[in-house]
Amino acid sequence: MATWFLKSRSVLQCVKTRAGLHQIICNRSLKGASLHSKALQLEDDLDYSENEAWYFPGGAVPFTSKINFIADSSEERIHCYRVLDNSGHHMLSNTSKLISKELAVQLYSSMVTLQMMDTVFNEVQRQGRTSFYMTSHGEEAINIASAAALSNEDIILPQYREHGVLLWRGFSLQEFANQLFANKADKGKGRQMPMHYGSNKHNYITVSSPLGTQIPQAVGVAYSLKMEKKDACVVTYFGDGTTSEGDFHAGLNFAAVLEVPVIFFCRNNGWAISTPVTEQFRSDGIAVKGRAYGIPSIRVDGNDALAIYDAMQEARKIAIKEQKPILIEALTYRVGHHSTSDDSTKYRAREEIEQWKADRNPISRYRNWIEGNGWWNEEQESTLRGSVRKQLMNAIGVAEKAERPALTDLFADVYHDMPTNLQEQERSLTETIRKHPQDFPSGFAVASQI
Ligand SMILES: Cc1ncc(C[n+]2csc(CCOP(=O)(O)OP(=O)(O)O)c2C)c(N)n1
Ligand SMILES: [Mg+2]
User: Fold this and answer.
1) Fewer Cβ atoms within 10 Å of its own Cβ: the N or the C terminal residue of the chain?
2) What does the alpha-carbon distance between residue 398 and residue 391 come to, in Å, rounded to a whole number?
3) Which residues of the chain have pLDDT under 50?
4) What is the per-residue DSSP string for 240-290?
5) What is the spatial distance between Cα 97 and Cα 91, in angstroms, rounded to a whole number?
6) Ligand 2 midpoint to CA 440 (Å)
7) Dehydrogenase E1 component domain: which residues (predicted)?
8) What is the Cα–Cα distance from 203 to 431, expressed in whole angstroms?
9) For position 444, what pLDDT does the model report?
10) Which uninterrupted H or E stretch holds 311?
11) Model-level pTM?
C-alpha cells in the first residue's frame, strides 16, 4: 500500500487499479456502473501533470502555492427551498409541481388534527391525568408533509416530535390515547414513557429517549433494505440539538460509505430544551454537514408544507434509485415548550415565540393557499374541528377508563425464561403493592401467586 505515495506519473495506472480495488474492498456491493463512473472520473483527472496533482481515492488533488485555509463559512448561507411565500402564494413558475386538491385537503386536515391532538393531550397532562406530553406545535408541516411523500413500506426511526408521521400512517387517536394512559390496549403494554410510540404495522420503530441512537440504527436498517433490494428507504428524524451527538456523525459517515437508502431529516427548530442553536454549533446549520460526509443535502422551509413534500419526494427518489443517503434540514421553530416538564418563557423572549406563532405559522399559511384555490372554506373548517374534538374526547374517555396492563407484563418479553433476579423483583413489587395499596394507583392486575 506504501506505493500509494509514489510520485511518478507512470504509476498512474497502478494507482487507478488500486483506487478501484480500494472501492471493492470497502464496499463489495458497489455496482459495476458505479465503479465505472469512478474510473471515468480518474480518466478526467489525467490532465494534471505529476507536479500539479496527487491522485487520491476520490480523484486528483491539485497543488497550490498559496497558503489558504478553507473558510469556516461561506459568504452566503445555504439557500432555503420554499414553494409558498409568507402569505401562502406559491412561488413556482412551474405549477404542475403542485399537488392535487384531494391530497392538499388531506394534508391540511391532518395538520389540524395533529395540532388539536397536541393541544388537548397537553391539557390532559396539565390536569394531572397523564404523566408527560410533548407537542409538535409549529412543526405540523414537517410531520405531515414529510410523511405524505413516503410510501408506507418506508421505515421510520423517529426522535420524539414526529408523532404526526404515525398519525398520517393511520395510527388512531384511540391508539395515541391508549399509549399516553398506559392502559391494557397500549401496544407497548404500558411500559414506555408517554410519547414513546411505536407500531410494527405502521413501520414506525419505537421512540427511544437517548438522543441520536436512532441515527446509526437507521443506517443499519437501510443497509438491510439494500441487501434485500427493496423498493423502499428509511427515514430517521432528529432535532438540531441531536446533531451534537456522536451518533449523528457516525451514522452519516457509515451511510455515505455503505451507500444506503436513508434520509436523515433534521428538524432545526432553534432549540434543544433551553440551549439555542447558537450555543450548539458554529456551522451554517446542519445542511453543510452533509456535504462534509459526502451526502447530497438540502435546506428546506420547515413551515412550508409544499416545500417539505416536494423535497421529501425528490429525496426518496434519489435514495432508492441511486442507493445513497440524503440529508434534509428543515428550518422551523419549536413554538411550544420542550415538554410538559419545561417552561420556555424562562429562557427565551415571549415576542420570539409569538412572532413564529403568528407570522410564520405553517398551518395558517397553508390554509391561505388552499382557500385561495377555492378548496377550503370556513364551514369545512368548523366541521373538521368539531369532528376531531369529538373523536379526541371520546378516545380520552375510553383510554382513561380502560383496565391497566397486568403487572406481570412489566417483567415479560425480555427473556424467554425469566431470570431469577427478575423473578425476585416481581415478587418484591407484588408484595410491596399488597402491603401499601394506598401508595399505588388502583386497577393493577396483581398476580395472585408468584
Ligand atoms: C443522550 C441524551 N442526552 C440528553 C438528553 C436530554 N434531552 C432530551 S431532549 C433534549 C433536547 C434535544 O433537542 P433537539 O434534538 O433539538 O430536539 P427538539 O426537542 O428540539 O425537537 C435533551 C438534551 C437525552 N434524552 N439523551
Ligand atoms: Mg431542536
Assistant:
1) N
2) 11
3) 1-37, 39-40, 448-450
4) TGGGGSHHHHHHHHHHHHHT--EEEEEEE-SEETTEEGGGT--SSTTHHHH
5) 11
6) 35
7) 109-405
8) 39
9) 65
10) helix 305-321
11) 0.89
339 catalytically annotated: yes
338 is catalytic: yes
pLDDT at 408: 86
For the beta carbon of residue 269, count every other beta carbon within 10 angstroms. 24
* Nearest ligand 1 atom to alpha carbon 273: 11
Dihedral sign computed on CA atoms, order 406, 131, 158, 387: positive
Chain-centroid distance, C-alpha 349 = 27
Secondary structure element (H or E) that encloses residue 53, with its range: strand 53-56
Q: Point out the catalytic residue in the list 123, 153, 352, 431.
A: 123
Residue 259: active-site member: no
Residue with cell 427493496: 230
- Ligand 1 mean position to 208 CA, how many Å? 11
pLDDT at 10: 36
Cell of 299: 435546506
Report the residue count for the chain. Answer: 450
pLDDT at res. 9: 40
What separation in Å is there between the alpha carbon of 387 and the centre of ligand 1?
Answer: 34
Q: Is 26 helix (H, G, I), strand (E, B) or coil?
A: helix
Pocket of ligand 1 (CB under 6 A): 161, 209-211, 238-242, 267, 269, 271-273, 334, 338
Q: Exposed e or buried b for every residue in 301-329, given b needs 16+ CB within 10 A?
A: bbbbbbbbbbbbbbbbebbbeebbbbbbb
